[in-house]
Amino acid sequence: MPRTPVPQVLRLLLTDKKRIVTIFSRRSFPARPGRVLALLLVLVAGSSGEAHAQEATGRPKVFLDCNGRDCNSEYFRTEIAWVNWVNDREVADVHVIFTSTSTGAGGNEYQIDLLGRAAQAGYSDAMRYQSLPTDTERERLDAIADALAIGLARFASGAGYRGLVRIEGVEEEGFNPRARVVSQDEVEDPWDLWVFRINVGGNLEGESNSREERLNAGFNASRVTPTWKFSIGSNVNYNERQFDLEDGGVFFDRRTDWGARPYLVYAVADHWSVGVRGEAARMTRFNQDFRLEVTPALEYSVFPYEEATRRALTMSYRIGPAYRRYIEETLFAQTAETRWEQSVEVDLSQRQTWGEAGASISASNFLFLPDTDLYTDGLYNISLSGDIQFRIIRGLSVELNGNIGWVQDQIYLSAGGVSDEERLLRLQQQQTDFQYGVRVGFSVQFGSIYNNVVNNRFNRAQGFGGFGDWRRF
Questions:
Q1: All structural domains of the chain with their residue ranges
Q2: What is the Cα gyration radius of the chain?
Q3: Phi-psi map region of 96: left, alpha, beta (phi>0 left; psi -120 to 50 alpha)
Q4: What CA–CA distance (Å, rounded) separates 450 from 457?
Q5: Among the four residues 145, 218, 327, 369, which has the most C-beta atoms within 10 Å?
Q6: What is the pLDDT of residues 247-257, one digit of tens each?
């Protein structure tokens, strides 16, 4: 039966101090009599799990545990703005486990399990959604957000959150799914919205004539509010390589890179933002023993920032000084220098039911160059990139992405050149005038699109070979 667009059939609404805010995204429902009534009864009846009758206060605290395709937590947080999303399951009222698996038709079945915690420890519920193999990412995300919102509404109703959600038909005019989010003063957060992340890893591999060791560590701290956005990320990477050469010699390379990159953003108005980005780093591949940079920036968004998950067109300008101390003397006979840089960038992205598209153009150059023959051509960098995933008809999609850049700003290149080993292993950046990349592809899907059977047997099998690696035959 065909899918009939009914954008105003059913939406989940938030009521707060006589305000009505749509938080349920638009989508198409199968044209089945009684569908709306069935959904209404599901929400009114509550969950199949045990519900607690006492009245709850505040807003449900939800921990999202994603592991599957289309796990876009930012999209779900944007579309479902009436719950309190938390980063620690220990403080959550409900733990949402999101997984997916392939169906027989080539689509996906998404499983959303809702498990109560703390006072709601006896609660258990599950939602499922099956996508068609020809659905675009936007269609899948909208449908998953619908299913997740219904599941959370069932939990809220059964857990005693009164007056939080209700079902109501609304007209297309005035549809605004992101008019409100849970504010900071509505929750008790001892961390004051700060989030920290630490990661450490290592790797050792080798053969009889080669060996490689890699160690890395990173730290990130961030705090995001509707007005301010701050983040600082840092990393340390140690890499050691050793190879036996054909002439009996040994190639040995050991290097340590590190970096710290803070940035601060302030929302000036609905379409304007200002910020500043900093960097302190050591980048051996780019012949930089130490780099220090401070770059103020200004950004304008043609569309409201709240629509960024679906469409965005931004223009930004940055300017600031950068200090570099080099490992080896450069082609311009410099061992250390400070250069002012400026850049402008325009980014466009769209996510629609027909597919996705994006394009960007950026240009940068150095300012206040000395008047010598070395800089007669200027020092600049211009790059263009774009991608599109377009569904021509159901079952036939094309994908195209590419980039091209004109590079005239490699002031860091070593005057000593690059050895063959460094060139082959890409340990040092080489001199170039331009760079490019192109990828074109298409996909055709035909046959049954209604096979919703899920069969998980031999999910890890990659081929039909018997014992051993089938790819050898």
A1: 3-168, 268-444
A2: 27
A3: beta
A4: 20
A5: 145
A6: 888 889 899 99
In three-state secondary structure terms, 179 is: coil
Packing angle of the helix pair 137-159, 35-45 (nearest 10 deg)? 40
With bands split at pLDDT 50, 70 and 90, how would you rate the model's confidence at 430? confident
Are 71 and 105 in contact by the 8 Å Cβ rule? The answer is no
Sheet holding 11-16, edge to edge: 19-22, 11-16, 165-168
pLDDT in tens, 16-37: 322 222 233 333 333 333 333 3
Identify which of 284, 359, 368, 362 has the alpha carbon closest to the alpha carbon of residue 326: 284
- The CATH fold of domain 268-444: Porin (2.40.160)
Q: pLDDT at position 411, please?
A: 85
CB count, 10 Å around CB of 76? Answer: 24
Entry pTM: 0.71
Give dist(CA 394, CA 391) in Å, integer.
7
Residue 75 parent element (H or E): helix 73-79
CB 160 within 8 A of CB 54: yes
DSSP strand E in 171-249: where?
A: 194-207, 210-224, 228-244
| Check whether domain 3-168 has CATH 3.40.50, yes or no | yes
